[in-house]
Amino acid sequence: MTISIDSHSGFCFGVTRAIEAAESELTNGPLYCLGDIVHNGQEVKRLEIKGLQTIDYDDLRTLPSHSRVLLRAHGEPPSTYWIAQQRGIEIIDATCPVVKKLQDRIRACYEAHKNDEPQPPQIVIYGKPGHAEVIGLQGQTNNTAIVIESAEQLDRLDFTRPIYLFSQTTKSVEGFNALVEAIKSRLNKVSPLVGEPEGVSASFEYHDTICRNVANRVAELQAFARANDIVIFVGGTKSSNARVLYEKCVEANPNTLFIFSPDELEEKLSTFNFQLSTLKVGICGATSTPLWLMERVSERLSAS
Ligand code: SF4
Fold first, then answer.
1. Tens of pLDDT, residues 82-116
2. What's the pTM value of the predicted model, to 2 decimals?
3. 164 Cα: distance to centroid of ligand 1 (angstroms)
4. What is the CA radius of gyration of the chain?
5. Nearest C-alpha to atom 7 of ligand 1 is from which residue?
6. Residue 34: which H helix or E strand, with range?
7. Which CATH number is 99-168+173-209's, of 3.30.930.10, 3.30.70.100, 3.40.50.1360, 3.40.1010.20?
8. Of 133, 181, 251, 266, which residue is the catalytic one?
9. Is the bond leading into 118 cis (omega within 30 degrees of zero)?
10. How distant is the alpha carbon of residue 263 from its chain centre?
């Protein structure tokens, strides 16, 4: 059996930056992280052993003043900064600069158009409802932004009002483009606005704000998947990026299996009716998958 690890898999720069900030700040005393620092349970556990304590919003409201709280790469809504300020909590802001820039763009759009007459605009986010990054983005619009996951949910929009579309950074480019086309097609079908000449409908602005750290990995990942007989995709069960990239691997090589820990390996492999000793096995992962975890999977496989 030949085993290789995809050299393009593993932490993106935003996650690397947040984890480096946590490790460096841990040397200065107790440190809390608001939510899992990364959507990978194994990496969260590693940092917890080093002293990082994961907290939720309820904990944030009861922490003693001067506590130090790290904000992860996904970013936070303005309300989090406000709570921290009220409680005298020190924020260590590890929001990914790409996410920060997107938050600023959405806030600028909201501020510029919130009082538009006669048609108040709709800010739409193509993303996963309830995802930490999406909560941070919605917060820039005073929680007025509409979050949709696919064209099937377009009935939630009013096609007689202006639409400003943005994307969560880890969504797929194809999904975003399909949504843009579906919105355009619905706009062409609505009645013209009152008082406007026939054929004039609400305005539509769209901004492809997908992070190229994720999007550019797809082609490399699919090439890697095709070059192997079996692909083992290692990712966290809560990671949307892992889900997107895993599906891309399956498209390129249907013999792809998803695991979150080396302990799952034997059971998942038993579903394949192959003689492993003659095969090329590739190991890859998401932007939230640590290299050390993929190496453990490789070691486990070699020993099997
Ligand atoms: S995927 Fe992109 S936007 Fe998200 S944390 Fe990584 S570098 Fe930042």
1. 999 999 999 999 999 999 999 999 999 999 999 98
2. 0.87
3. 22
4. 22
5. 14
6. strand 31-34
7. 3.40.1010.20
8. 133
9. yes
10. 25
